[in-house]
Write a structure and sequence with these properties.
The protein is mostly beta strands and 398 residues long. Helix content is 11%, strand content 30%. It has an 11-stranded antiparallel β-sheet with strand order 5-6-14-9-10-11-12-13-7-19-22, with no helix packed on it. A 4-stranded antiparallel β-sheet has the order 1-2-3-4, with helices on one face.
C-alpha cells in the first residue's frame, strides 16, 4: 500500500506567485510614501509624528536632566523679529554634566529626518514644540482664531455672515487662508459687475500697537467683485476712522492702499466651496505688530457698487492719514464701522438688489473650516504646509 497515492504535490502556481508579488509591490509603495515627496500626506504625517516625539523627549529631558534647560541655540536679546522664550532646538548641543548625578538623559536617541528640511523650535515658556521655515524669525506659530457666524441668531435666507479673525501680537502673520464653505450654501455674484460690493471690513488695532500706543485704532475696507471667480479686499490703512492722539500713518505712504486677493470656488448642493484669501503683506515683518481683530462681513445681498472716481488699484498707491480721497470717502462710510453708504457720496451708487449668500434649505449644523500657512510656515520645493485655524466655525440653520 502506497500512502498518499493520488494526492497533489504541495506548491504555488505561477498565478499565486504573481499575486503575492503584486501585493508586496503595493505594500512597498505605501511604506515608501511617507518618506518621499514632501508634499504628500504621508510626509505631513511624518512631520506631525516627529513633532509629537520631540515634544515628549523635550518634556522628559526637562524633568530628568541637569541643568534644567533645553538644548537650544542661544539668541542674543533684542534681535529684531525674535520673541523672548522662542528658541531653535540644537539636536547636537552638548550639555554640562552634573558631578552629583550619574544620569543625564539623551534629548533624542535619534535625530529626526525632518531636521534637515525644517527648523524645529520650542517655546521655553510652555514647552510647545513646532516646526517653521528654516531661517525665519524666532516667533510663535500663528494662533489666529477664526469665528464664523450669521448676523442673526436664526439665519434668514440671505443673512450676512461675519468672519472674525483674531491675531495676537508677536505671532506669525497670516499669508494665505483657505475658508471652506459647506455644501448646501449658494454663493451668487458670479455675474455681478466689477466693483460690486460683496463685503465690508472693520478692523481694530489694540492698545499694544506701535502707531498710537495706549489707544485703539479702527480702520476698514471693502470687498468687491473683480470678475466671476475673483474678489478683492481693498483696504486704505491710513484712512482710518478713529484713533487717539496720534496722526501717524499705520503703513508707509507707498503701501497704504493694499489689495488682498480672494479666489472664489462656489459651493453647490453636494460639494463644498472655498474662499482663498491671499494677504498682501508688502514690507511688513513676519510677526503681527499688534493685537488685531478683523471683522469681515460677507453680505447676504448685493445692493451697492463703487463707482465715480473709484478704480480698483492694481498695486499699492500713495495716501496719507485721514485722506478722505482714499478708498472710503467721508460721505460714503460711517466712522463707526465702515458701512458702505450710497447717500450723498460720489464713490458709491445703489444697484438692483441681488442675492450673494443664500442659506441651505435643510436644517442642520453646517461646519465651515479654515486652514493656512503663515509667514514662518516651512516651504520645501513648491509645497506649503497648511494647518487648521482654530475657532467657532459651525452655523446652525433652522
Amino acid at each position: 500500500m502506497v500512502l498518499g497515492k493520488g494526492k497533489a504535490q504541495a506548491g504555488f502556481t505561477l498565478v499565486e506567485l504573481l499575486s503575492v508579488m503584486a501585493i508586496l509591490g503595493i505594500l512597498a509603495g505605501l511604506v515608501a510614501g511617507p518618506v518621499t515627496g514632501l508634499g504628500s500626506r504621508g510626509q505631513s504625517t511624518r512631520l506631525d509624528g516627529d513633532r509629537d516625539g520631540i515634544r515628549k523627549a523635550a518634556n522628559a529631558f526637562n524633568l530628568e536632566a541637569f541643568p534644567e534647560a533645553y538644548p537650544v541655540l542661544e539668541v542674543s536679546e533684542g534681535v529684531t523679529g525674535n520673541v523672548s522664550g522662542i528658541k531653535e532646538i540644537d539636536f547636537k548641543k552638548g550639555l554640562p554634566q552634573d558631578p552629583n548625578k550619574n544620569f543625564v538623559p539623551n534629548f533624542l536617541v535619534k535625530l529626526p529626518d525632518s531636521s534637515a528640511l525644517v527648523s524645529w523650535r520650542i517655546d521655553e515658556n510652555s514647552g510647545n514644540v513646532f516646526f517653521a521655515q528654516d531661517g525665519s524669525a524666532l516667533i510663535k506659530p500663528s494662533n489666529n482664531r477664526l469665528d464664523i457666524s450669521a448676523t442673526t441668531s436664526t439665519p434668514s435666507a440671505t443673512s450676512d455672515y461675519v468672519l472674525e479673525l483674531s491675531m495676537a501680537k508677536d505671532e506669525a502673520a497670516p499669508e494665505i487662508m483657505v475658508i471652506k464653505i459647506p455644501a448646501g450654501y449658494t454663493l451668487g455674484g458670479g455675474f455681478a459687475d466689477a466693483n460690486t460690493v460683496v463685503g465690508v471690513l472693520t478692523a481694530t488695532l489694540d492698545t499694544d500697537n506701535q502707531v498710537d500706543a495706549g489707544q485703539t485704532i479702527t480702520f476698514g475696507g471693502v470687498m468687491v467683485v473683480v470678475d466671476s471667480d475673483t474678489w478683492a479686499l481693498v483696504i486704505d490703512y491710513n484712512d482710518y476712522a478713529t484713533t487717539g492722539t496720534s496722526t501717524a500713518d499705520i503703513k508707509t505712504d507707498n503701501e497704504a492702499v493694499r489689495v488682498h486677493t480672494i479666489e472664489v470656488v462656489r459651493p453647490s448642493s453636494d460639494s463644498a466651496g472655498t474662499l482663498t484669501i491671499d494677504f498682501e503683506r508688502g514690507s511688513d515683518t513676519e510677526g503681527n505688530q499688534a493685537t488685531e481683530v478683523w471683522n469681515l462681513t460677507l453680505l447676504g445681498e448685493m445692493t451697492k457698487k463703487l463707482s465715480g472716481t473709484f478704480t480698483l488699484p492694481s498695486s499699492t498707491t500713495s495716501t496719507s492719514s485721514g485722506d478722505a480721497s482714499g478708498i472710503q470717502a467721508a460721505t460714503d462710510v460711517t466712522t463707526s464701522g465702515f458701512t458702505v453708504n450710497a447717500g450723498g457720496g460720489t464713490n458709491v451708487t445703489t444697484i438692483t438688489t441681488a442675492t450673494l449668500t443664500a442659506n441651505p434649505s435643510t436644517s442642520a449644523v453646517y461646519r465651515w473650516a479654515a486652514e493656512e500657512p503663515t509667514s514662518i510656515s516651512p516651504v520645501v520645493g513648491t509645497t506649503e504646509f497648511f494647518s487648521d485655524v482654530p475657532g467657532t466655525q459651525g452655523v446652525l440653520i433652522k
